[in-house]
Fold this protein.
Amino acid sequence: LLLGILGAPALGDPGPLEDVVIDRYYIPKICLREAQMGDFIRYHYNGTFKDGKKFDSSYDRGATVAGVVGVGRLITGMDRGLQGMCVNERRHLIVPPHLGYGSIGVAGLIPPDATLYFDVVMLDIWNKNDKLQITTLSKPERCNRTVENSDFVRYHYNGTLLDGTPFDSSYSKDSTYDTYVGTGWLIKGMDQGLLGMCAGEKRSIIIPPFLAYGEKGYGTVIPPQASLVFSVLLVDFHNPKDGVFLEHLEVPESCKRRAVTGDFVRYHYNGTLMDGTLFDSSYSRNQTYNTYIGKGYIIPGMDQGLQGVCVGEQRRVVIPPHLAYGENGAGDKIPGSAVLIFDVHVIDFHNPEDPVEIETVFRPEGCNVTTRNRDFVRYHYNCSLLDGTRLFSSHDYEKPQEVTLGANKVIEGLNSGLLDMCAGERRVLIVPPHLGHGENGARGVPGSAVLRFEVELISMEEGVPEGYLFIWHGEPPANLYEQMDLNKDGGIPADEFSTFIKTQVAEGKGRLMPSSDPEKVIADMFQNQDRNQDGKITPEELKLKSDEDQEKIHEEL
């Protein structure tokens, strides 16, 4: 093949041409392939005579010319002039008569012995022996799994012809293309080109026509026998047979218990799509997500993914769409058929049937007297959440906490945990929310929170029965009113009442309800006896608690 260069017109007519004259007036910077004998090509052209008169044009027909080069299916001059061309290269060809239509010409179109001038642009080159061309543009560092046949994929793409002409784009539709791979739903080349991809990977896939739309093309956008170039970003993929995939990111060394169906779990999470797009986060709301597991209150994949978690564990839960929000998605942040990734941090969990968990850290030797309900106790405590978040501590105050057990002055779980303790004993209490502050929580305590108490009993005083402020150690005096009326004036004011009660306590004849304020207990006793509230107790008003209780029984009878 002789590749001539058009001479400058000023040089005059060089005489009859012996071969095709080729002027490569535009050569692209990148030329991945040149047309060779036997290649299938697509090109546009304008054909004119020397005087510029047009005799033919593919542009006027609105269709490219496609054929095999170098095998005699074109006029000899065109066969020679097209060889060696790159995609998007432009050439001027001068074809002498003996390499064109010769002395016969084409009736009514090309006269005999006509020299032909062609302006050609190459659009596509392929060969029947071509294979798919795959170039990886970028790939995530982590790739636990790649696309296989029968997987369902979601991907974005830009589709162009080999010359760069765009014909379609998922980005313009603002939606991924979603389909199965290897089941005949895609052109063969794309079915093959997606295999082995990782989520987040980008590829360039060049598909020859026989693996694309072939000789028929597709509508008005893809010509017959067109090679296709797809720039693909794989957003996510899954298989309909997939279950939940778990990745244990951090598991505490000590895990005494694992969550099971029916447990109530409090956890933080970040929810992302496979490409890393964040669609939801409990951290952004500064509030845990609280729910029962295994009961259908959350998507099935999360119901499964939280089974077996430990308090404090961090795990990644990868959920296929059929165990999440399916083909419809959710709202405007979770697309249809999306794989969801939850990075979960379990704060705590409990079961509604859980009792208080008590661990004795230290118990003094010779522990014979232990606390009971109605006892008055002093204790130190530290209170925290199970993740270690500090809530309250008695050490922040000048003295220990004081309370009468069984008087509904502390949460039920703490009251239970303080029973049967010796002075000096130390315990760790795990209090479930139904024995704590419940689903609403309290000031500084989140709703449905499991609480951890470290308690130390400092001292205890024996209590009195419920409803009593004072009890006698033996039988009360038979002439109680006369003994209480110290000045014998027929009335007992508050000071006389107080002096008498204190004397009984001092002499060991009775005891007050334990309290940090004995004066208030005595004042309450006086107010109970001064029934008409005139500031003194008369003989008719003074009654023992046991007598009052008996009178109530008779009234009921």
